[in-house]
Amino acid sequence: MIDITNKKGLEGIIPALILPVNKEGKINFKLLEKQTTYLISESINGIFINGTTGEGAWLTMEEKVQVFKSIKEINKGKVFLCAACLQPTTELVISEIKIYEKYEPDYIVAVTPYYYSVSQDIIIEHFKKIADFSSVPLILYNIPQCTHNKIELSTILKLAKEENIAGIKDSSGD
């Protein structure tokens, strides 16, 4: 039996940050600070940054870094920070990780490859390559309604054996 619980200290309440934007679609950093401060005050364990509700698929890399750095400054090490890489290919995820690693997230969160349907073997290879590359523990992000590729239970069990895979965010609703 594989124990896939509490790897790398991952536990507790980890809300996905909703990115506040103004009428022009620009990031509202004042509201971001207010939201982040409130969440931290409510005894959460971590924050999921630049994910689906954080507009991560729509932001430029520069904007993603601005959001991450802003939250990190507000956080001051109180809770752990999870940086999402919502890219469609292994290579693009690794490119984002290279940038994020400079700002020291506690976890990287990555989705399956998307746009094209892929096999579970390709999903395993994708996450193994990312985990092997990253100096930061990896959280798998299962959101098949957006990626059109579900991470099957058998795949999760295989990936749980990987040293640098810390957990999974399952947004499948299944």
UniProtKB/TrEMBL annotation:
Q: Which InterPro entries match?
A: Aldolase_TIM, DapA-like, Schiff_base-form_aldolases_AS, Schiff_base-form_aldolases_CS
- What keywords are annotated for this sequence in UniProt? Lyase, Schiff base
User: Keyword Lyase, does the record have it?
Assistant: yes
Known SMART domains for this protein? DHDPS
GO BP: small molecule metabolic process
Which stretches are transmembrane? Answer: none
Quote one Gene Ontology molecular function term: 4-hydroxy-tetrahydrodipicolinate synthase activity
Q: What is this protein called?
A: Dihydrodipicolinate synthase family protein
- The record lists the organism as marine sediment metagenome
| Source species taxonomy | unclassified sequences, metagenomes, ecological metagenomes
